[in-house]
Amino acid sequence: MRNPFLACAAVVLTAAALAACGSSADGNDPEAAGAQRPAASGPAVPGPSATPATPPTEEPTAPGTSAPAATAEGPKTPVDEITPATGTFTKKQKEYLKDRVPKGMDPAAVLQTGQETCDKLRYLVKADRDTAVGAIVTGEIPDAKDAVAGLCTQHQALVDEAAYAYPDGKHSGKKLRPGVYRSASPTTGCSWQIAGAGGKELASGASDTGKSRKITIPDSAVTFTSTGCYAWLPEGAAG
What are the angstrom distances between the C-alpha of 220 and each of 1, 19, 122, 179? Predict the structure, then answer.
């Protein structure tokens, strides 16, 4: 289930120029460079809705092309050969680009993809932290783990929390972790079910309010199924 916050983030961030991707003689990291770009002041953030938002779209790096995926296959440019058309890359930027730049690809375009991920997280965490974590859990912000580790380490807590959260869907076996969870940005069609051995229902519920709910996954749980709740975050994490 797509989250409405992300459509807003895409619109706002598309307007911000990522001119600093190849900077630097000043030695600023990408987030510092981002501070020199136009502020993302965007429209008011909408509340959760039962109607799926239009999937966010990314601006192409050049007419008719898409921003390169961090996991693009094929030969990669050796790290000692990764240089921008102008200026230099910082140490953190080069570490992020290692084994990520396909042969013949402009490394600044690859770096831009990671910086856009950091910008989205920065926007979302200001609007609603739970939604930012949920966007990582659901994969709506892809490559978040690597982008955060290399370019915006101040968001590491979001990635750490996402590692213990659940997106909508069916979860079972060793992936289940007992504990209390809260729903992040649920729709008005949020429902869940927890079952034990033999499919015996242990707990279930539904909410049409669009407000966060809490559930407890017991030690005896074998499966946990969620629909329309977006993501479930471990209670007790910073929020």
Answer: 28, 53, 38, 11
